[in-house]
């Protein structure tokens, strides 16, 4: 027997859980399908924490979306009573003429984001445990902070269910058939049909949107939790997150949440993943090269070897920007893909945007720069 609903959401990670919530809170008949469990560690929305910031050096067009994302994260906290966002601040360091530092200042100038330039002398006092290269410029964004990633996903799903959404977990999708008047989805458990569908499948996006030939590349990324030698990085001591634009890569991390370990990772690099369902999650010797160099040069109070690691995936686009759009051939299908390793902070507003697009065909949010048409052949 086929289950009929008005809206389906395929994939309930960061973006899909939010889309499910925003459809449910509008009183709509929606069902979400997830091939794993709630807040699982098989995709891209896990690992305890994610940075959230407004001085967006990637592109200033993201900042209006971030303003709304901040509002929605706060609203979700109030609705759920859960702690999702910690405004612990963010230090960004890099060459003064580098893309990162120039982008931070451009964002601050265009959108009046509060960004503080920190002198070399002050940086030593304010950011103990960091050996910042002498020729680097340092900025500090007080409104930045961290999101508790699994709790965000879990809360979106729980609140969606409270609003009447249905959720089907541990169901692998075998086929998605797009017709003029409906969408049919078959899993290894059940068959579904809906008037419209939102695809938020992360590293599996190309599988469900094959006819669009989206230019997506999936890469394997490592997260590290390394022991701290001294309590100089502790959240309880008022420390925040950090982002370094080094000559050999971009590195980011978080304050120590437990006083024992600190999470950090390299944003750049990553080997191509052919099959997202068969990701190598072992720690390889080659995974350690650049992160070990960064620790030895910049973080003297951090042990060089991690006590644990995690593995996730970035789904990258050629220009590093998201794709949020309606299907070119059938507007019953709306999708968000290619979040390129910097999308989670936007999840609250991306869900709202996808709900707008699938119900109204448009959104008030400025997302033209994220349209798939930018990759179309001339």
TrEMBL record:
Q: What is its EC number?
A: 1.5.3.1
Q: Which residues form the FAD dependent oxidoreductase domain?
A: 6-357
Q: Which domain of life is it from?
A: Bacteria
Q: Name one Pfam family in it.
A: DAO
Q: Which cofactor does it need?
A: FAD
Q: Which Gene3D superfamilies match?
A: D-Amino Acid Oxidase, subunit A, domain 2 (3.30.9.10), FAD/NAD(P)-binding domain (3.50.50.60)
Task: Provide the alphabetized UniProt keywords.
Answer: FAD, Flavoprotein, Oxidoreductase
Q: Which NCBIfam families match?
A: PRK11259.1
Protein name, as recorded: Monomeric sarcosine oxidase
């Amino acid at each position: 027997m086929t289950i009929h609903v008005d809206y389906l959401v395929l994939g309930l990670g960061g973006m899909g859980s939010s889309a499910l919530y925003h459809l449910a809170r509008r009183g709509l008949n929606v069902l979400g399908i997830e091939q794993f469990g709630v807040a699982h560690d098989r995709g891209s929305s896990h690992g305890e924490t994610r940075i959230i910031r407004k001085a967006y050096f990637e592109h200033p067009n993201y900042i209006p979306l971030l303003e709304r994302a901040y509002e929605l994260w706060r609203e979700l906290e109030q609705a759920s009573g859960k702690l999702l966002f910690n405004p612990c601040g963010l230090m960004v360091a890099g060459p003064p003429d580098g893309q990162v530092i120039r982008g931070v200042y451009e964002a601050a100038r265009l959108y009046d984001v509060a960004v503080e330039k920190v002198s070399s002398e002050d940086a030593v006092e304010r950011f103990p445990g960091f050996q910042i290269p002498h020729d680097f410029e340092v900025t500090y964004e007080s409104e930045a902070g961290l999101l508790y990633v699994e709790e965000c996903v879990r809360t979106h799903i729980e609140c969606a269910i409270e609003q009447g959404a249905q959720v089907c977990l541990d169901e692998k999708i075998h086929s998605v058939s797009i017709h003029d008047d409906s969408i049919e989805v078959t899993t290894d458990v059940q068959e579904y049909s809906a008037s419209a569908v939102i695809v938020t499948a992360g590293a599996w996006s190309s599988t469900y949107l094959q006819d669009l030939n989206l230019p997506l590349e999936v890469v394997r990324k490592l997260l590290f939790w390394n022991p701290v030698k001294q309590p100089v990085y502790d959240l309880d001591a008022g420390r925040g997150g950090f982002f370094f634009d080094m000559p050999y890569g971009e590195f980011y991390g978080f304050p120590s949440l437990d006083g024992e370990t600190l999470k950090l990772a390299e944003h750049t690099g990553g080997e191509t993943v052919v099959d997202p369902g068969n990701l190598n999650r072992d720690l390889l010797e080659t995974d350690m090269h650049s992160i070990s160099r960064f620790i030895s040069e910049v973080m003297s109070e951090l042990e060089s070897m991690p006590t644990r690691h995690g593995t996730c995936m970035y789904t990258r686009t050629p220009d590093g920007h998201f794709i949020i759009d309606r299907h070119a051939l059938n507007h019953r299908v709306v999708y968000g893909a290619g979040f390129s390793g910097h999308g989670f902070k936007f999840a609250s507003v991306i869900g709202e945007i996808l709900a707008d697009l699938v119900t109204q065909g448009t959104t008030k949010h400025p997302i033209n720069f994220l349209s798939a048409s930018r990759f179309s052949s001339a």
